[in-house]
Amino acid sequence: MSHGNIRQILLLEPGKASLPKVFISCSPVEELWRHHKNWYFVEAHDFEPIFTKKDGYRRIYVDLPGMGGSPVGSIKDLDSILKSVSNFVEKHILPSNFLIIGTSCGAYIARALAYRHASAIDGLLLRVPLVEPVTSKRDLDPFVPAISDEALLSSLSGADREKLGNITVQTPEYIDIFRRKIEAIWLPAITASDSAGLDSIRNDPSLYKLSATLHSRETPFFKPTLVLTGRQDTDVGYRNAWPLVTCYPRATFVALDRANHGLPIDETDLFEALVNDWLWRVEELRHHTLPLGDSSLT
Questions:
Q1: Is 242:155 a contact under the CB 8 Å cutoff?
Q2: Radius of gyration from C-alpha coordinates of the chain
Q3: Which helix H or strand E contains 124, and what residues bound it?
């Protein structure tokens, strides 16, 4: 039975056949799922400035079914998307060890992949992770900007106000960066995906929930992990993600002030520092004995 074809972008340093692999699990973030953006391109935009400064990493950005070049096929729910990505991992990455990064719903899928392929995964990065798939059950704050400037907002055109939505930091500098990211990165991908196929999953809680096993307090994942959330994230929030620290004992948990579900906007230096710290911890563990009781080795 077909589970949709995965299209990949593979970036690598030529002439280095034994490079460690980084697998980027790309998925639309919560707020962007509704606008059907081709999220793998956004992932590359945010992570390539970091990885291009480093030697020895292949980057594989995956175009999930329905999100651009990969057809929906028989995809009917999040479980079938997970199966499609897991099949891709088994065919194109295993038995090599790799790192996995997931954003929003992609982080939800990445957690399932981390459990399923734990022995091969050296590190896990969860950016603005979707933890509670049922919107009404999420612990969310109402939108309150970190910096408010009503006069500045009133000077924006109606088209800009609609395009920008809730603006977390209402300063000219932030708005300029935010606008450029939306126009250059997000808007070009709006028409790339299968609206009907994605909406049928996103709007049905029974289809938007994974049945797969995830790491828990009882069965933790002992590899270096970064959980990166935004305090002003009104889509998935940050409080639902806090219990993940018990599932991932090597996790750094960050709740960034003045950051929303689209982070990073203007906090790219801090974002890079956090990702670099995660990569350093991964490499440190790769060169030392793993802790006793690491269930991810079984």
A1: no
A2: 19
A3: strand 121-127
How far apart CA 193 and CA 188 sit, in angstroms, is 11
Instruction: Break the chain into its structural domains and give their ranges.
Output: 7-297
Above 60 in pLDDT, residue 71?
Answer: no
Query: Nearest-CA neighbor of 259 among 178, 172, 154, 139?
Result: 178
| Closest listed residue to residue 31, CA positions, set 119, 143, 113 | 143
CATH class as words, domain 7-297: alpha beta
CB atoms < 10 A from the CB of 154, how many? 8
Q: How far apart are CA 295 and CA 236, in angstroms?
A: 29
Q: Flag whether pLDDT at 128 surpasses 90.
A: yes
How long a stretch of residues is the chain?
298
Angle of CA points 131, 132, 135, to nearest 5°: 135
Task: Give the CB-side neighbour count of residue 48, counting CA atoms within 13 A.
Answer: 13
Tell me 185's DSSP state: I
**Judging by DSSP bridges, how do beta strands 21-25 and 225-230 pair with one another?**
unpaired
Summarised one tens digit per residue, pLDDT across range 166-184 is: 999 999 999 999 999 988 8
What global pTM score does this model have?
0.88
